[in-house]
Structures are given as structure tokens and as C-alpha cells.
Automatic annotation (TrEMBL):
It is an enzyme of class 3 (hydrolase). InterPro entries: AsnASE_II, Asp/glu_Ase-like_sf, Asparaginase/glutaminase-like, Asparaginase/glutaminase_AS1, Asparaginase_C, L-asparaginase_C, L-asparaginase_N, L-asparaginase_N_sf. GO terms for molecular function: asparaginase activity. Gene3D superfamilies: 3.40.50.40, L-asparaginase, N-terminal domain (3.40.50.1170). The keyword Hydrolase applies. The keyword Signal applies. Its EC number is 3.5.1.1. It comes from the Bacteria. It comes from Sinomicrobium pectinilyticum. This is Type II asparaginase. Belongs to the asparaginase 1 family.
Length: 330
């Protein structure tokens, strides 16, 4: 029987982490090569014809736009050349949700792409990496994972990449989708989908970045009580193309930062109001009059994901009305 061909693209993270003791103290993430990760998963060769490639080997706190561009390019190439039916990406958990959303918007093929990682290093007691990798391969081998953007498979839950958020710093159930819940479950080599995201992804977005080696520069400024405008002023001086505000409540800004945002907009910088609150959406014309101030809103994207959509949006248009539509669509 022909098994589905699954390519594992390794980027680093705790799943490739190594340490001298059985706990998590003083381990190094992104230390082990892809072949060691595959060798640690018994039975993986019964569900798919596996091959592996090392894209990077970093803790995902060191994930970069350059690695995202490289990953996107390689994924599109693999599907174009029919080198694999599905792809699994191993990745640190710190920025896994950002990579998942970025690739959901930029990969041009509907084949399954599943991202996973672990909370315990490969050398740790009861390491969760092999089980998460096994489950991710099961999802990537499933027809049902077609065209769903990048799926994040972790601790037997599966999430739409757009919706996944790291909500625990150390627990094994590190991810959840606070606005929508998971889209399914994976266990005992089986996958069950019970939800589907209606947000557009893959080739249903205009974000074809083939051939680009740079993206617009978008920064995030998170606010708090009595926050000065230092961060926004610094971003204006470093000539960013866009600023996402991790605003208060429904994306609110205090007076000092409202004045700084007016300055940024006068310089042609696109400013998007998001929120530091973990659930709910930022709505137009609540306490802030966006039409008057010149801002757009993130809908329900976190500041770090709104930054990704604004970065990609700015590759297509600088028109604020169009950019705002993107936030309601993708
Ligand atoms: N559990 C993890 O993967 C966190 C380790 C590391 N900081 C990373 O994100 O790669």
C-alpha cells in the first residue's frame, strides 16, 4: 500500500532541545538534528513515507522574517514539484503561532501543513516531542487537513494557525484558541475535525510573496497605565512602515500615545489598533474615532498576529480601506 509522503521541516525549538538533566533546567533548544527527532518516534514509518530537512535550528525566540521567507519558499517548492503530499514543521513554541499564521497566509497550495513542537526537551523525562510529532504526521497525512491553512497540532488538540495562542509558559497543554476553541482532536493515530475556520487562507489570499526577500517593517507597541509615547516615537524615528498598538481594552490609547499616533500617521505610517486583552475583538468607532484619527483595527487578531497581516497587507496596498478589509477577511 502506498503511504502518503510527508516531509518534516525542522526549525529548532524545545522539541530539538537537549540538556544534561532529566528536567528542564538549563537545556538548550534547537540542539538536535532532524534525524534524531524522527528516530525517537516509534511507528512513524507505518503512517507515512517520511523524509526530513533542516531549515534552521533555533529557539523560536530567535525566529526571523528571513526564516519565514525561506520556509514559505521551500514549502511552495515542495508542493509544486510534488516532493511530498503534506508537510510537518517542527518549531519552538514561543513564536509557533506567528509562524503558523504567516504561512497560512502565504503558502500557495492546499496540501496539509501542520506545525508542532514540545514543552519538554528531547532529553527530558516524559518528553512530549515524539507524541506531538507522531500526531502532527497523522494530521498531515489526512485528506481532511487540505486547505485549512497551517494547522497547529499540540497535546492531542488541533487548532487553526490563525486562532492558536500560547497560553501557558510551561504546561504541556501550552496552546489554546481563546476566541474559537480547537478545530479537532488527534489521538491513537486518528484525527477528528469538528470545526472549520471560515477565514481565508492559502491561495485565497493575495499574499503571494514569491521572489521577495524582504517584507515591510511593522512594529508593535504595547500600552499600560500611564504609558509614555517613548516606544511609538522611537518607531517613528526608525522609519517603520506600520505600527500595531497592543492597546488597552477595546484597543484604547491614552492621551500621550494618541498624540504620538497622530504624528506617525502624518508621516504616512499605517497604525492598527489591536488589544493586549487575550480575547474579543477591537471594534471600529468605540471610544476611538478611527475615521478621525486615521487608524485601522485588528478585529480579533492579537498584536503579534496583526503585525503579520499588516506586514503582508503592505506588500499589496497602502490603501487604509483595503487594509482594513484584509483584517475582516483573513
Ligand atoms: N517549549 C518551547 O519550545 C520553548 C523553547 C524555546 N524558547 C522556543 O520557543 O523554541
Amino acid at each position: 500500500q502506498d503511504l502518503p509522503k510527508i516531509k518534516i521541516l525542522a526549525t529548532g525549538g524545545t522539541i530539538a532541545g537537549s540538556g544534561a538533566s532529566a528536567d528542564r533546567s538549563a537545556y538548550t533548544s534547537g540542539a538536535l538534528p532532524i534525524k534524531d527527532l524522527i528516530a525517537a518516534v516509534p511507528g512513524i514509518d507505518k503512517i507515512a513515507d517520511i523524509s526530513g530537512e533542516q531549515i534552521s535550528n533555533v529557539g523560536s525566540q530567535d525566529m526571523t522574517v528571513d526564516i519565514w521567507i525561506k520556509l514559505n519558499k521551500r514549502i511552495n517548492e515542495i508542493f509544486k514539484n510534488q516532493e511530498a503530499d503534506g508537510i510537518v514543521i517542527t518549531h519552538g513554541t514561543d513564536t509557533q503561532e506567528e509562524t503558523a499564521y504567516f504561512l497560512s497566509l502565504t503558502v500557495r497550495y492546499d496540501n496539509p501543513v501542520v506545525i508542532t513542537g514540545s514543552m519538554r526537551p528531547a532529553t527530558g523525562i516524559s518528553a512530549d516531542g515524539p507524541k506531538n510529532l507522531y500526531d502532527a504526521v497523522v494530521v498531515a497525512a489526512s485528506e481532511k487537513a487540505q486547505g485549512a491553512g497551517v494547522i497547529l497540532a499540540f497535546n492531542e488538540n488541533i487548532f487553526a494557525g490563525r486562532e492558536a495562542v500560547k497560553t501557558s509558559t510551561t504546561h504541556l497543554n501550552a496552546f489554546s484558541a481563546p476566541n474559537t476553541g480547537p478545530i479537532g482532536q488527534v489521538y491513537d493515530g486518528k484525527v477528528v475535525f469538528h470545526e472549520k475556520t471560515l477565514r481565508k487562507s492559502n491561495k485565497n489570499t493575495p499574499f503571494d510573496i514569491t521572489g521577495k526577500d524582504k517584507l515591510p517593517n511593522v512594529a508593535v507597541a504595547t500600552l499600560y497605565a500611564d504609558a509614555p509615547a517613548t516606544a511609538i516615537d522611537a518607531y517613528i524615528n526608525s522609519n517603520v512602515n506600520g505600527i500595531v498598538i497592543g492597546g488597552l481594552g477595546n484597543g484604547n490609547l491614552n492621551k500621550a500615545n494618541t498624540a504620538a499616533v497622530e504624528k506617525a500617521i502624518a508621516k504616512g505610517i499605517i497604525v492598527c489598533r489591536a488589544s493586549r486583552v487575550p480575547t474579543g475583538r477591537v471594534t471600529l468607532l468605540d471610544e476611538t474615532d478611527d475615521a478621525k484619527l486615521g487608524t485601522i483595527v485588528s478585529d480579533d487578531l492579537s498584536p503579534q498576529k496583526a503585525r503579520i497581516l499588516l506586514m503582508l497587507g503592505l506588500t499589496v496596498t497602502k490603501d487604509k480601506k483595503k487594509l482594513q478589509e484584509f483584517f475582516f477577511e483573513y
